[in-house]
Write a structure and sequence with these properties.
Structural class: alpha+beta
Number of strands: 13
Strand order of the largest sheet: 1-2-5-9-8-7-6
Number of helices: 5
Oligomer: single chain
Strand content: 25-35%
Distance between the termini: 32 Å
Radius of gyration: 17 Å
Largest sheet: 7 strands, mixed
Order of helices and strands: EHEEEEHEEEEHHHEEEE
């Protein structure tokens, strides 16, 4: 474990350590410039948010690194008792509780290492106007007050119980316990609106675009 009082993003020290040949869990009490998928900003609040990154050196050059991130998402959903929406959203009643970001970083041997960032809204009671209609927190969903470090430790411990992320068929039985993908709206890379139908045999999104069923790997 690597602990920080404050960082721009927990991905930054994780990436730096991977490039030096190291791995581990990178946990921050405060993250000031978190990032989500496709470069989106991830807003976090000290004491109210869980922000950590996990560098998986054991999965160097994994042929399906997105499954590593999806496995982390399952572990997180199991700990905070929420649902999942492809590929990595933690949701409750259609609102976003948190998200998982998987990046590939070259280590000192030139291997591709999955670095998985985790951001979860724990104790927030309100959100900025621009996300107030789509965001929620564990406190708003289930009540109580959560300790971010304890939740982080519980997620890491739960990972030990997850199946190895070799193929989607390995992960699907546990993912499906939490799946809330059908019906979710997505925006494809070329700007089309897609409606989620489910998850395909390789872990891709099966969706409907203008009434036609198709599969996509990023949206």
């Amino acid at each position: 474990w690597h602990d920080f009082d404050e960082v721009l993003s927990t991905q930054d020290p994780a990436v730096a350590e991977v490039k030096a040949g190291n791995g581990g869990v990178f946990f921050a009490t405060n993250q000031t410039l978190g990032r989500g998928r496709f470069g989106r900003e991830w807003i976090s609040v000290p004491g109210d948010s869980l922000t950590m990154s996990l560098a998986f050196s054991a999965y160097a050059d994994h042929p399906r690194p997105y499954l590593v991130g999806m496995t982390v998402a399952v572990a997180a959903a199991a700990v905070i008792h929420c649902e999942l929406a492809w590929p990595n959203d933690l949701v409750a009643d259609g609102h976003k509780l948190g998200g998982i970001l998987t990046e590939l970083v070259l280590d000192d041997k030139g291997r591709r290492i999955p670095v998985v960032g985790v951001g979860i809204n724990l104790n927030q009671k309100s959100f900025p106007p621009e996300i107030s209609e789509i965001a929620t927190s564990v406190a708003l969903d289930n009540g109580g007050n959560q300790d971010a470090r304890r939740v982080a430790e519980a997620i890491v411990a739960r990972l030990a119980l997850m199946p190895e992320p070799d193929h989607w068929s390995d992960l699907a039985p546990v993912w499906n316990l939490f799946d809330h993908t059908p019906g979710k709206k997505y925006r494809t890379a070329d700007g089309h609106e897609a409606i989620g139908l489910g998850i395909g045999p390789e872990g891709q999104l099966v969706c409907s675009i203008d009434g036609e069923t198709t599969s996509i790997l990023a949206a």
